[in-house]
Design a protein that fits this description.
Strand content: 35-45%
Number of strands: 23
Helix content: under 10%
Distance between the termini: 117 Å
Structural class: mainly beta
Length: about 350
């Protein structure tokens, strides 16, 4: 018998290629990842018997393409066993001529849907759909910048509203890259005196949640919003404050009314006129002209003085009061003033009769 011979069986022509992503695809062929992560794909070229097609003389050349969430599509070549990289070529990460290539692709920082496909000459490309989900909630912000500024100011001086008013709050939850985060619980805590109430909403597809608060009772409301450990306001020792005043409407003209100013004079920028008594009360000055007087306990000769409701008020003092007999039925709508920035108010008593009114 002659010497034994070794016979090498070559694979047949390519008929298919496997495409395995990691993380693995679900039952619908979709891969779910978070923003700013990566996805690894491995593609294998096989003949009709399932044998991988590998040749050091003529290594297989794959095309790998990405249609990102935003931006232009990209296409690279990947050569079996070749670790060379360039703007148009990716390295085969396994570095072995084995009929398969492996690459790792970033998914970017934009949430949405992207596609990855692999193609080989004369064969139909295979595609996988990648669902890029937003990251964890890293930002909680108000939708309305003006409202945010007003609420931020209420940490020092509370907002002033009247019983029956509504207060709408709308916030957005987003990740570190600005992607809205849906399906997250946002809690609004409302405290008034010893009463505490919590309302909960779930963020929608835009990461937004809205609340509408009806101010049914007078008093000071303290508000805070929390989502996934983030809080508005961010200082856990503070809360947004809203001072709700009782309604003072439909005062009969035949009644004489004594009014204690329930707020302090607002700060006025330089060059601007301070408000008038009419402005502070929200009443037409014609209805008060000659019908409003103030008591001055330091003036022993003429303690009662008529007040011109159109004259700018340059100062107000705790304990001041006004008596009015309006010419018509009025609707009082206090505005322009501010509440004291502390929980208690001292009213110094002076010689003579003093008017002491509840300061809120």
């Amino acid at each position: 018998l002659g010497a034994p011979r070794t016979v090498t069986l070559a694979p047949g022509p390519p008929v298919s290629r496997g495409f395995i992503p990691f993380p693995p695809a679900d039952a619908e062929g979709k891969v779910v990842v978070s923003v700013n992560s990566t996805i690894m794909v491995r593609a294998t070229l096989r003949d009709e018997k399932g044998n991988p097609i590998a040749s050091t003389d003529n290594p297989a050349r794959f095309q790998v393409g990405v249609v990102p969430v935003e931006g232009l599509p990209q296409l690279w070549s990947v050569i079996d066993g070749n670790r060379t990289t360039s703007p148009s070529q990716l390295a085969d990460e396994d570095g072995t001529v084995n009929g398969a290539v492996q690459v790792t692709l970033p998914v970017g920082t934009k949430a949405g849907t992207m596609s990855i496909f692999v193609a080989v000459a004369n064969l139909s490309p295979q595609t996988v759909t990648v669902i890029v989900r937003p990251g964890i909630v890293q930002q909680l912000s108000f939708l309305d910048a003006q409202q945010e500024a007003e609420l931020q100011g209420s940490l020092t001086l509370p907002l002033v509203r009247v019983v029956g008013d509504t207060l709408s709050l709308a916030v957005r939850a987003s990740d570190a890259h600005g992607n809205p985060v849906p399906d997250r619980s946002v809690a609004l805590t409302i405290q008034r005196g010893f009463l505490t109430e919590t309302q909960t909403q779930t963020t929608d597809g835009n990461g937004e949640a809205a609340f509408t608060l009806v101010l049914r009772e007078p008093g000071t409301y303290s508000l805070a919003l929390v989502c996934d450990g983030l809080r508005l306001p961010s200082d856990w020792n503070k809360a947004y404050r809203v001072q709700v005043l009782p309604k003072r409407d439909n005062v009969p003209a035949e009644q004489v009314q004594g009014l204690g100013i329930p707020f302090l004079l607002p700060s006025v920028p330089g060059g601007q006129n301070p408000p008038t008594v009419s402005d502070l009360l929200g009443v037409d000055p014609a209805a008060l002209q000659g019908r409003i007087a103030r008591y001055d306990p330091l003036d022993f000769q003429t303690p009662w003085k008529f007040v011109d409701p159109t004259t700018p008020v340059t100062a107000l003092s705790s304990g001041w009061g006004f008596f009015i007999k309006p010419r018509q039925t009025l609707s009082f709508r206090p505005r322009a003033g501010r509440l004291p920035d502390r929980d208690t108010v001292e009213i110094p008593l002076q010689m003579g009769w003093n008017l002491i009114s509840f300061p809120i």
